[in-house]
Predict the 3D structure of the following.
Amino acid sequence: MPDYDIVIRGGRIVTAAEVFTADLAIRGGTIAAIGHDLGKGREEIDATGRLVLPGGIDPHCHIEEVGADGSVQEESFVSGSRAALAGGTTSFICFKPQWRGQTLAQSAPDYETRAARSLADYSFHQVITDPTPKVLATEIPALAARGIRSLKVFLTYDPLRLTDGDFLKVLASARRLGLLVTVHCENFDAIAWQQEALLAAGLTDPVHHAWARPPVVEREATLRAMALAELVDQPLQIFHVSCGEVAEEIARAKARGQKVWAETCTHYLTHGVDDLERPDFEGAKFVCSPALRDRSEAARLWEAIRAGTIDIVSSDHCGFSFATAKKDPGASSYGQGAAMLRPDGTPAFNAIPNGAPGIENRLTVLFSEGVSTGRIDLPTFVRLTSANAAERYGLGGRKGTLMPGADADVVLWDPELERTITVGEMQHAIDYTPWEGYRARGWPVLTIRRGEIVMRDGVLLAQPGSGRFLARGPYAAIAPRGVVPNGFDTVGRGSGQT
Ligand SMILES: [Zn+2]
């Protein structure tokens, strides 16, 4: 009779804090023991020469999003979660929509049913685009009670964006209920104004997407978002920081003691605005927001990562194929202004759907760029890919860590394995990858999700529906500081002391 379901022997175990050689035993879906001379497992895995990592958590990805018009993005929960597991990510957080003029309940009522087909564990950020009294007073509290503990707001994109006044209402509601607010920071009016001028001048190429939204529009909105969050004393997560000057503002807010955190995404570390100039409209593959920046910005993002200003790297995975969505002027785009056709029938830059796929490549690319080149050490890699997301989003103790009692989400990683990324060998449903031809060093060879071997040597073994919804309870990391201007607590209507 074996003592354990699985024992992984002799690997180098990596946590957010340390690296050591030991065996890791799994029983009943959780980690049962870490140590030496552990008892027998029903399945014995030799991990000599391999790293043993916590399963990745991708806290920012767009999966099977349903549009207000009922259209559904190509990347389904089945294909998207297969891609996640193939790349060493065992949990992700995606976005539950709200459309203006609708309640949360009315917007994509089948979204959770769709998500239940996932092979990876999952949770949701609730997008808020229309914070009506009913949404604020009843729907957001009900959401929190069901374990959805993070809200997402957009300061740009029509019709998603919030005014500053509505943003304040969401921040205050989140503070009262103990939710984290996440935010897409770009100045809507500045972008619209730039776009109008570019289109009027006949500048319609994919690269003009970046011209319309230079770093200053991201920096201004980031500063404003942080200022409004400071006014309300509500912790804030800044999404997809693309460049050094934005990271500098965040570092300043942190230095003042504000509870503000930031992520960047893999593509900002490896790609640049020159990718938007690729011929044959291929620049459209790299249209995402914030836009790709000058190549020199990647070094500044690494600096911000090393300084701890940016402490999560997400994928911002988006399911838009090149042939069927990026080139389709009728595709849902979160665009701004009327869609315009170019002479060859391709859409003008402002009508190209924003976003690129990345959930499958996130760990591999970050490992290659970060660990294999010596920019970061292994514990930092774990913090960026899982441990900090677990702590930030209320999954601490369960996910993002290797210790007895935690979910047995484990990735065996070959740090020396070199492979070339090519879309034909990938699991995602999208017809391209931004990293086509990228030579990666470091690759996941086995993924375990809650004690089940779900990927072995690139072969997916899990069944649709085997992923679980991750309900998140209240958690300490996002408690307000109790510091409000003038001592008057706008939210609590009393003293600032809490
Ligand atoms: Zn996004």
Summary: The two ends are 54 Å apart (CA to CA). The pocket of zinc ion is lined by residues 60, 62, 316 (CB under 6 Å). The longest helix spans residues 215-232.
